[in-house]
Structure formats: C-alpha cells, structure tokens
Amino acid sequence: MRYGEVRRAEFLARPNRFIAHVRLDGEEVVCHVKNTGRCRELLQPGVQVWLEKGTNPNRKTAYDLIAVQKGERLVNMDAQAPNRAFGEWAANLEPGILSVKPEVFFGDSRLDFLLETEQGFRYVEVKGVTLESGGHVRFPDAPTERGVRHLHTLMSAVEQGHRATVFFVVQMENVLDFAPNDETHPAFGQALRQAAEAGVQVLAYSCRVTPEEMVIDREIPVIL
After folding, report:
1. What would the pLDDT profile of 127-184 be if each residue is shown by its tens digit?
2. What angle do CA 102, 192, 85 make, to 5 degrees?
3. Could you tell me which of 61, 64, 62 has the C-alpha nearest to residue 34?
4. CB-side exposure of 75: number of CA atoms within 13 Å?
5. Which of 39, 35, 16, 30 is nearest to 63 (CA)?
6. Which residues, other chains included, contact 40 with Cβ-Cβ below 8 Å and sequence gap of 6+?
7. Confidence (pTM)
8. Burial level of 76, CB count in 10 A (0-12/13-18/19+)?
C-alpha cells in the first residue's frame, strides 16, 4: 500500500478530530487527519508528521496527515490504511483463496471482507492499531461500541457454519504483543475473549512502515 506525494512537517495542534495545524516549509498549514481516534499519545506538539498531498483541487485542505514519529517508531495513523493493506495481503491468510470481496453484509451488519476459499466462506473484520507502550500494542484507544457489534456479527457467522477472523493490523514495526485495551473499554475485551471461545480467529500482524508505504509483515502474539 503506497501513497503519492509525501511531505514531512511539524505537528502543532489538533483543534478537533478532523483537522490538524502543522508547520510545513516554515508555513503553518491546516491538514486533514485521516484518523478520528484520540491519538493523544501520538500527536504531541513538535513531533514530526508526514503528509500526503491530495489530488482533488477543490478540497478544503491540500494535505492528509498519514504518519507520525513516536520515538524510534514511525506510526502510520491513516484509518483507511489497514483495510487497504489487508486487501493487498489477504491471499496470504490461507491457501486456496478464490476471491477477496470488500465491504460485505452479513445479516444487518457490514463487515470488511469476505474471502471465498476452497474450504468455504471466511468473514474478516479488520481493525487498525496505533496505541503502543513499551512495545506492547492495545486496541481500542477509545470506546468502540461498533467494534463490539462487529465481534458479535463474527460470532453469528461462526454459529451459521462459516469461518470468521478479526484481524488487527498494527500500524508500526518492532512490537512485542497485542492485547485488548481493557482499561479503556472493558466490554470490547470481554467480547473479544467471548469471540475467541466461540471459534472466531483472532490475529494480529505488525507492518513495515515508511512515510510512503505500509505493508503487513509478521504475526505477533495475541494475549487474551
């Protein structure tokens, strides 16, 4: 998954969840933040960020904020990147994949992917992970009732004889393990453990990240 024209800037402030003020080539610029999560541990005044220049001349902001430097780690914080990266990588999930269909409905819920395989259908919900401390990554960084609903939908798919996976795309390299963020949203952690017990596959993969691209790289341990 690659970006177009990417520029480095200095983060200044985030007045709301949609926009940020950055310093680009000595000039203060307003850019769009492609992540509506809190990201408070990432977007600190003075940190280096990377911007992708938009291609639509009529949009209000010329740039999208897509990545941030956190110590020695470069963290991709584009909320659309995990699905794009998984869509490119999905054929590696298991042998015998016949097709990869994005944004499919199961019942009255929409899931990110349906993989048609030689063994039948596999429904996949993708979650991007940007919260890290000491090499340990956690999800979510804010309460997500939508995420809980997705887990129950995956459980329903298993009950109806399909296979199902929740796939956590860790948007950075060199991390140790993944666990649900029970402190922030206990209900999500409870639902994730319930889903695993019901037969939903729980996977977490870290990514190789540069300012210009993000590629799913290696599986990391999941601690439930």
Report:
1. 999 999 999 999 999 899 999 999 999 999 999 999 999 999 999 999 999 999 999 9
2. 30
3. 64
4. 25
5. 30
6. none
7. 0.95
8. buried
